[in-house]
Amino acid sequence: MTTKSLEMSRELLLGNILRSAAHIVPDKVCFTFENQEFTYAQVESKALQLAGWIQEQGIKKDQKIGFLFKNSIEFVEMFWAITLSGGVGVPMNFRLSSEELLYMINDSDTELLFIDKEYVDTIQSIRNELPNLRTIIVVSEQLVEGMLSYNHLFDETYDYIPEQQSDNDACIIMYTSGTTGKPKGAVLTHKNLVVNAQNLVRELDLDMNVKQLIVAPLFHTAALASLVFCTLARGTAVIQKDFVPNAVLQTIQEEKITTLFLVPAMWNFVVNTPNIGDYDLSSVRTCIAGAATCPVKLKEQIMEHFKIEGMYDLFGQTETSPVTIAMKPADSMRKSAALGKPILNIEVRIVDGNMNDVAVGEIGEIVYRGPTVMKEYYKNPEETAAAFEGGWFHSGDLVSADEEGFIYIRDRKKDVIISAGENIYPAEIENLLYRHEAIFEVAVIGVPDAEWGESVKAFVVVKENKTLTKEEIIEYCFQNLASYKKPKFVEFLPALPRNTSGKILKQSLRDGIAIESK
């Protein structure tokens, strides 16, 4: 392993994580996919070949390369190749509509696009509206007219030439969830992603024995971070294409998985699998939840089934690469309502609207500063300036802190309900309702009220073989909350609308999208 210059050797470049591991443990299994094993040396060889081909196409530093895959071998190869090439990767959500992909491809100025065969028709339908897109490469056994074959990129050798890079250079553009309005492209640098991985290896106490199951979509920043920190630890990542609860349990048993990250919605399905007791889950030492708040009742179920004394909760957002706060197992039940404490390399403040620090116990917006905070929103200087007002990144999350420094989520600023002048935080009501034995999922929003300004409405998914009425829910809240916080309206749904990162789409609930009442 060599580097082009002394300057580059001093930089925190993401691709060097793979290259270093391939140099130290070349024959160790880097990842497995569909019963195929790939060593660090094999992954490095494929990534360097692809990086050389990308450079052969004239892609220079800061030019954009999109990829549209489910979790797969090709996703991993392309991700590492792009980090080495000098180009900027744009992972794309495979569940997006053609119109949404059209926006993302054009907004990001993508010039090369790698896709899986199942998305050929989608991309063909918008091809004439993509003026910047030069070449499409498809993973397919059959040739597709107007597209290059991914496998044919390995027919001849392409020499990889290390591009002069700085760790402050853009590495990937991660588009935000877009729960409101059009998604924004968060530009994450090499340093952002490397430092985040270093933070997590330390916080999670990982070593070379880690065997991480990755089933959350890799285009999402949390799952991608799992891939990177597992590589930094020189462990093994077991990657699954789709989330199927029984398949997750079967893989844990067969592969002796040690570390498992799932968003709370996924954890909920796993622990409620009817035959979960039939699987040997004893290899799992580290259970991690993130991307959304994990209710206390769900934590208790996870700990019961996986025989662990506590679990990790990770909190952050796309723009912070993503983790900013962690709850460690030792505190997971003692401080069960908290998010945790700020992690290494992250500066945190809780401020009011004038950027003044609030007192202990008071609610304010959490703002961040540090080497994992994004560089900017791509081509969006106004939103970038607003996000970094006062020199700190504004998260939009309302929190408070206790005397020990543990941070508690109160809500998103945009989700606060104001009823008769009182602030009502939906997260407080949701956490209560999740403790009800008949409730599987819940979301709370504010709805217009001519008399009070806004009133509370709860959307509830009832567990199978359970029954519940609106009156029972309201009475349960009345017994456990101040009267003004109890829901005035309750609607029962078969499922809550979510985006691919597992976050509930409250705007869809407000708009009546994807709602089908029971």
Automatic annotation (TrEMBL):
Residues 21-378 form the AMP-dependent synthetase/ligase domain. It comes from the Bacteria. Residues 428-503 form the AMP-binding enzyme C-terminal domain. PROSITE patterns: AMP_BINDING. NCBIfam families: PRK06187.1 (NF004837). This is Acyl-CoA synthetase.
